[in-house]
């Protein structure tokens, strides 16, 4: 009879990123002092409450003959997101976001589409805003996100969630293309999401749909009737004209995308909205991307977790399950997640609790372990050298149109065979949150000329890890980008 303890055992254990020296010592069954000494050998001066990143934890663990699986705090690699077998995929409804300039009728259009459905007797309950709703049409079902605008859209994308399949660009026929129309086009293009144009307010006497078509054709959105590829639908949200046609066109466009998902797996998706309700606690709207969410599932959403107690749709109907592209409001999370947080159904509620606790901790210290690492001018040269990037994307902001154009052109001229400079958005005005979110979602830097960024915007930039540089002289901006492209020279940039 052999003594099991005489065999060297490789201990295997799951740890989460951000574990402290003391906690790791306990797991490895050694004194913390030993780890501190080993860390010193690695030139890391640590206390027992020091939190460690994945590489350090793995190094220490392997030195103690333990096999550890370090679970990162953030990022979709956290749970095995194995690709689905094509034969398991089933068609799903398209998810649509409405974008466009302020006052062009986004809210009223969302409302009108929804009321049409209610009028057709699909309802039964009291409609409530949960952040998304589905409409049924003879040709299929469409999921609308009813937080219009590109900020929400890009926030999702910055979090790594692709919550939108198709954008409906609303342009008022009496007003034409305006700055936020162009901004919306930039956002949709960067996300590679197709656009269907809804020319709204055609009931107005001064409506001029042809002018909208001409203006958009100049921006690369050629109407189909003029030999282009973009679908235009004329509507009136107020008089409820053209809505059925719009839904039909959305479904036709979506057909080309061949949207599919595996409904028979544990659910994964994105948090659309969340709030604390006095009576019901944490209330969150989740959009399922794949799998089927069920009442009773254990869910980890951002830095919070819980068991789904109840689910319902925008009409207050209780649901037991929600499949791909279905938005549902759920009760049962322990805390309020953030819009854009990714959620997963987990098998092991204990692990969910631990990850949740550590994420909360990391957020509290304002120290997001493993937060997305974006391109910066400082790491640009390394990334080019290592072949990590072939393209430097830039969001350009300037005080006047002339300087924006000059800066854009000069930056784009810096392209060479190793790296292409691509300005993904250029506009006048101060740097705002949506610039930062676009940069974050697209792994771009922001270059400003004679503009400001307020504290709120700076905080977003810091949180998202987006490099923002503001210059007073165009020449400096161009020189700075050029120098950093080719060397690690420390030139005289001004950082906000
Ligand atoms: P948003 O800022 O894009 O969400 O625009 P709203 O939906 O709030 O609409 C702005 C204004 O335009 C409101 O006063 C609406 O009543 C009006 N409006 C929206 N759609 C139409 C339409 O089809 N025809 C007319 N005449 N007015 C509209």
Descriptive report:
This protein has 14 helices and 23 strands. The protein has 496 residues and is of the alpha/beta class. A six-stranded mixed β-sheet has the order 5-6-4-7-8-9, sandwiched between helices. Helix 7 links the parallel strand 8 and strand 9 (231-234). Helix 1 packs across helix 2 and helix 5 (150-158) packs parallel to helix 12 (433-442). The longest helix is centred in the first third of the chain and has 17 residues, at 106-122. It is globular. Residues 1-9, 366-372 and 488-496 have low confidence and may be disordered. Bound molecules: guanosine-5'-diphosphate. Guanosine-5'-diphosphate binds next to helix 4.
Provide a compact summary of the structure:
This protein is an alpha/beta fold and 496 residues long. It is built from 14 helices and 23 strands.
Layout of secondary structure:
Layout: E1 11-16, H1 21-28, H2 32-41, H3 54-63, E2 66-71, E3 90-91, E4 95-100, H4 106-122, E5 132-137, E6 140-145, H5 150-158, E7 166-172, H6 179-190, E8 195-200, H7 209-218, E9 231-234, H8 243-257, E10 260-261, E11 268-277, E12 281-290, E13 293-294, E14 298-301, E15 304-312, E16 318-319, E17 321-322, E18 327-333, E19 342-345, H9 349-364, H10 377-385, E20 391-398, H11 401-412, E21 420-428, H12 433-442, E22 444-449, H13 455-464, E23 468-471, H14 474-486
Parallel strand pairs: 1-2, 4-6, 4-7, 7-8, 8-9, 20-21, 20-22, 22-23
Antiparallel strand pairs: 3-10, 5-6, 11-12, 11-19, 12-18, 13-17, 14-15, 14-19, 15-16, 15-18
């Amino acid at each position: 009879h052999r003594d099991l303890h005489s065999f060297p055992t490789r201990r295997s254990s799951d740890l989460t990123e951000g574990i402290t020296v003391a906690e790791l010592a306990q797991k490895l069954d050694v004194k913390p002092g030993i780890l501190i000494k080993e860390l010193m050998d690695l030139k890391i001066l640590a206390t027992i409450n020091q939190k460690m990143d994945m590489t350090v934890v793995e190094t220490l663990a392997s030195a103690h003959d333990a096999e550890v699986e370090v679970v990162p705090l953030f990022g979709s690699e956290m749970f095995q997101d194995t690709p689905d077998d094509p034969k398991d995929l089933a068609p799903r409804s398209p998810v649509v976001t409405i974008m466009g300039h302020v006052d062009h009728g986004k809210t009223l259009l969302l409302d009108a589409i929804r009321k049409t459905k209610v009028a057709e007797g699909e309802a039964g309950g009291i409609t409530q805003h949960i952040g998304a709703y589905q409409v049924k049409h003879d040709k299929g079902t469409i999921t609308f996100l009813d937080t219009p605008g590109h900020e929400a859209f890009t926030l999702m994308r910055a979090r790594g969630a692709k919550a939108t399949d198709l954008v409906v660009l609303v342009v008022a026929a009496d007003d034409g293309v305006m700055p936020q129309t162009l901004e919306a086009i930039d956002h949709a293009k960067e996300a590679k999401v197709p656009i269907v144009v809804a020319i709204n307010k055609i009931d107005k006497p001064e409506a001029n749909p042809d002018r909208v078509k001409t203006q958009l054709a100049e921006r690369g959105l050629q109407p189909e009737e003029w030999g282009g590829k973009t679908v235009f639908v004329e509507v009136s949200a107020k008089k409820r004209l053209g809505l059925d046609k719009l839904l039909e066109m959305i479904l036709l466009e979506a057909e080309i995308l061949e949207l599919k998902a595996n409904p028979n797996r544990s659910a994964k998706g994105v948090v659309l909205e969340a709030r604390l309700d006095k009576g019901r606690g944490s209330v969150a709207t989740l959009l399922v991307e794949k799998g089927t969410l069920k009442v009773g599932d254990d869910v980890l959403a951002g830095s919070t977790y819980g068991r789904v107690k109840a689910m319902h749709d925008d009409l207050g109907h209780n649901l037991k399950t929600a499949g791909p592209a279905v938005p549902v409001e759920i009760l049962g999370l322990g805390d309020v997640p953030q819009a854009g947080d990714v959620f997963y159904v987990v098998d092991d509620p204990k692990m969910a609790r631990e990850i949740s606790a550590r994420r909360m901790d990391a957020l509290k210290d304002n120290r997001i372990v493993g937060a997305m690492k974006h391109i910066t001018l400082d790491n640009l040269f390394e990334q080019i050298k290592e072949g990590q990037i072939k393209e430097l994307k830039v969001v350009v902001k300037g005080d006047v149109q002339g300087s924006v154009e000059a800066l854009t052109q000069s930056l784009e001229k810096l392209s060479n065979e190793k790296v292409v400079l691509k300005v993904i958005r250029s506009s006048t005005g101060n740097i705002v949150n949506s610039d930062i979110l676009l940069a974050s979602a697209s792994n771009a830097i922001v270059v400003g000329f004679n503009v400001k960024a307020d504290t709120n915007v700076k905080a977003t930039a810091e949180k998202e890890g987006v490099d923002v540089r503001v210059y007073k002289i165009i020449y400096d901006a161009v020189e700075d980008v050029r120098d950093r492209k080719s060397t690690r020279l420390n030139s005289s940039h001004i950082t906000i």
